[in-house]
Structure prediction request, 544 residues.
Amino acid sequence: MAKEDVQFCVNIDGPIAVYVQIENLVQFAIAAGKLNPGDTLPSVREMSETLKINPNTVTKAYRDLELMKLVHTRRGVGVTVSAEAPKLCRENARAMAKEHLIDATAECIASGLSAADVRKIVGQAIDSGANPYQVP
Amino acid sequence: MAKEDVQFCVNIDGPIAVYVQIENLVQFAIAAGKLNPGDTLPSVREMSETLKINPNTVTKAYRDLELMKLVHTRRGVGVTVSAEAPKLCRENARAMAKEHLIDATAECIASGLSAADVRKIVGQAIDSGANPYQVP
Amino acid sequence: MAKEDVQFCVNIDGPIAVYVQIENLVQFAIAAGKLNPGDTLPSVREMSETLKINPNTVTKAYRDLELMKLVHTRRGVGVTVSAEAPKLCRENARAMAKEHLIDATAECIASGLSAADVRKIVGQAIDSGANPYQVP
Amino acid sequence: MAKEDVQFCVNIDGPIAVYVQIENLVQFAIAAGKLNPGDTLPSVREMSETLKINPNTVTKAYRDLELMKLVHTRRGVGVTVSAEAPKLCRENARAMAKEHLIDATAECIASGLSAADVRKIVGQAIDSGANPYQVP
DNA sequence: GTGGTCTAGACCACG
DNA sequence: GTGGTCTAGACCACA
Prediction:
């Protein structure tokens, strides 16, 4: 059975820079346990071809991830997930997510939605189980 | 009694472009009923002086708002809120806010926060009454 | 029987400056014989109130018309159509109209309409008898 | 064989704003099939140097075109013609041109030209093959 | 007084 | 290399 790589997809025309999307995807994959310490990320060339994007973009994302201590880059080997990555990612992801949630709540209130509306929307979102970073 | 204009303030060094902040502020002011159809926005010069920014930046924001049909602008007269603006802004603001809330909730779940955590965070955000677009 | 003034109307939100619209309206009214030498134009105050526009705008239009020798302005009397106005207006109007027609034809061809299409459109426009400067 | 870019030229001292001229030129080039979906427009810097105008002026035109959904613009990549652009441009161009032709015809009639005169002028304009948006 | 347009040139973000 | 944003300040058109 062939190695089954985690697959990513990015929105090339969206408002979020492609390299940021890659960084987020990798971080969420680590936080979710889909990428574990020692696993290798797709090579720069492979990922740039898969996503139809510029190799420099992937390189920049990987470099940033290395600066965050989430991956190690080694010549001839590739880019591997670091041992401390899961812990860092989980903390990071939760802090970011919490902040976004607070911001979004405030935005809803400001736009005239009632507290009850907000709670209802959140409840439905929780129940639907949607996950923007899920990758099949 | 002097005319009491709506006051705006922008974060000049933030990640969001100043002209976008102005657009958002105006939209939220309209959605919140602080600016009503027929009201004139602060003149380009006035706002640029108040916010200590370049007139062109304000001009760009006002131009965009006109393209969104939220204001009418007439040379030598000023920029006035359009009749359909409140409807457009309210719909827009609520739809956007709701979407952000759903996304943020999903992000929280994906990052490992429990449903109870999420509800608690939302509850606190509602109680704190924070409003990113409020202007004293 | 009360004096029945020629009535004008302008499009305050259109792309054409209000004072230009007034000038055109007056010229066409003269060319069409609705205003004759010696007739007085509506006073600045009257017209500005009727059209809900700034008196300065009317003043500017009347001043331009005077520079074109189409009207005479006399204190205590008003603005009256000059003797040579009909001749000037007719020439002017025809020259302008002809130029516009040539431009519009070229534009049609450039946009891909066939010569036959163009002739057909013109024929229909002629038959319909529409007149953009007609005032009831 | 070197890539042969579409060439534009603008009238820098005319009554029409330069950025509007650029927008029109691009729209007509698309309508005429000289620019096709996926083609990249000249870069902002390139066009500003070619036309001897300020880059900001080109930027404004490109920004407007993007709002009209005629182009996509991506940082670091360039500005490309959208898939739906030809359809939008053709419809737009023909509708506008037709409207102008009708208006101009009515104007001619109103100014006293005979139907025969009008048809003659149109015929000559067609035969002359003049095209205000043609670029060699 | 109002907004509209343009220039010259800076710095940033992205690929 | 690309486009995005902003500044500083000019001149014009309009009401």
Observations:
- The longest strand of chain B covers residues 71-74.
- Residues 18-128 of chain B form a domain with the Arc Repressor Mutant, subunit A fold (CATH 1.10.10.10).
- Chain B has one domain: 18-128.
- Residues 123 and 129 of chain B are 10 Å apart (CA to CA).
